[in-house]
UniProtKB/TrEMBL annotation:
<keyword id="KW-0249">Electron transport</keyword>
<feature type="transmembrane region" description="Helical">
    <location>
        <begin position="35"/>
        <end position="59"/>
    </location>
</feature>
<dbReference type="Pfam" id="PF02790">
    <property type="entry name" value="COX2_TM"/>
</dbReference>
<keyword id="KW-0812">Transmembrane</keyword>
<keyword id="KW-0679">Respiratory chain</keyword>
<dbReference type="InterPro" id="IPR002429">
    <property type="entry name" value="CcO_II-like_C"/>
</dbReference>
<dbReference type="InterPro" id="IPR014222">
    <property type="entry name" value="Cyt_c_oxidase_su2"/>
</dbReference>
<dbReference type="Pfam" id="PF00116">
    <property type="entry name" value="COX2"/>
</dbReference>
<keyword id="KW-1133">Transmembrane helix</keyword>
<comment type="similarity">
    <text>Belongs to the cytochrome c oxidase subunit 2 family.</text>
</comment>
<protein>
    <recommendedName>
        <fullName>Cytochrome c oxidase subunit 2</fullName>
        <ecNumber>7.1.1.9</ecNumber>
    </recommendedName>
</protein>
<dbReference type="InterPro" id="IPR008972">
    <property type="entry name" value="Cupredoxin"/>
</dbReference>
<keyword id="KW-1278">Translocase</keyword>
<feature type="transmembrane region" description="Helical">
    <location>
        <begin position="80"/>
        <end position="99"/>
    </location>
</feature>
<feature type="domain" description="Cytochrome oxidase subunit II copper A binding">
    <location>
        <begin position="110"/>
        <end position="236"/>
    </location>
</feature>
<keyword id="KW-0472">Membrane</keyword>
<keyword id="KW-0813">Transport</keyword>
Length: 284
């Protein structure tokens, strides 16, 4: 009965990756995955060693009578072992964590693409920029609305710089497949980070910071394409094409030119307006 709700796929995902998602779509995500797997293996080795000592002591020194065993006051080798070993384990984990964290936070001098992420209640605006910093120019822009989920089209194999800012409160830029998120702050604080995507596809994006009434509806879609298709898309946008027209230029037509991983959600305000309209039409 307990295992009836489990599948082999769920079992393999949970235990094969030690609980860490294996669907990362960036080079940074893969490095974080490797760090997690290494850390869990180290924890298991230490755990098995400690458990072995515990059970060995339980069996070897179990009570065999009323006579007290030999009392040992000091054991210098043992004290050195359980003092030095944890320090070494923590030092190694700290070393590799610092390396991976530095890599994830690393900013290049000349990224291949720069996207300014502008968050506001309760939508996203993505500005494609011709350089880094606030003095750069926006060459194309996508803004979401209550009716249309905004699309963020990006290429594989290129260093992509995100520069985040908010027009009101704190939001959070989150694509689950990137395996990390970054808060978006208002004012002069601009969070910056870079990713290099390595898998084409369409992925849902969300706000991961409670930001008000319609926080749950603050969605976008990340569309990862080849560098060639991205260049075609950006060229179309620079020439005045809309987001959907740009998507059509690279082969995404009809419904595929809109978000496919998520859809706009009806808010209570929209539902209330719909009910009022129906009531008026019915003469109530």
């Amino acid at each position: 009965m307990v295992l009836s709700g489990c599948s082999l796929q769920d079992f393999g995902s949970a235990f094969g990756n030690f609980g860490w998602p294996s669907n990362g779509i960036s080079l940074q995500a893969h490095k974080m995955y490797d760090l997690w797997i290494g850390s869990v293996i180290a924890a298991l080795v230490v755990g098995i060693f400690v458990w072995g000592l515990i059970f060995w002591c339980i069996i070897r020194y179990r009570k065999r009578g009323d006579e007290l065993p030999v009392q040992t006051r000091f054991n210098m080798p043992m004290e050195v072992l359980y003092t030095v070993t944890p320090i070494l384990v923590v030092a190694v984990l700290f070393y590799y964590t610092a390396i991976v964290q530095t890599n994830v936070d690393k900013l290049s001098k000349n990224p291949d693409q720069v996207v300014e992420v502008v968050a506001f209640k309760w939508q996203w605006q993505f500005n494609y920029r011709d350089g880094v910093g606030e003095d750069a120019n926006t060459v194309a822009s996508t803004v979401g609305s209550a009716d249309v989920i905004p699309l963020l089209v990006l290429p594989t194999g290129e260093k992509i710089r995100f520069e985040e800012t908010s027009k009101d409160v704190i939001h959070s830029f989150w694509v689950p497949e990137l395996l990390f998120k970054r808060d978006v702050f208002p004012g002069n604080v601009r969070n910056k980070f870079e990713v290099t995507l390595d898998r084409e596809g369409r992925y849902v994006g969300r706000c991961a910071e409670l930001c008000g009434t319609y926080h749950a509806f603050m969605q976008f879609e990340l569309v990862v394409v080849s560098p060639e298709k991205f260049d075609q898309y950006l060229a179309a946008r620079k020439n005045g094409a809309t987001t959907q027209e740009g998507m059509a230029a690279i082969g995404f037509t009809g419904k595929d030119s809109y978000a496919t991983t998520t859809e706009p959600l009806n808010t209570r305000r929209q539902a209330s307006s719909w009910n009022q309209s129906n009531a008026v039409a019915a003469g109530k």
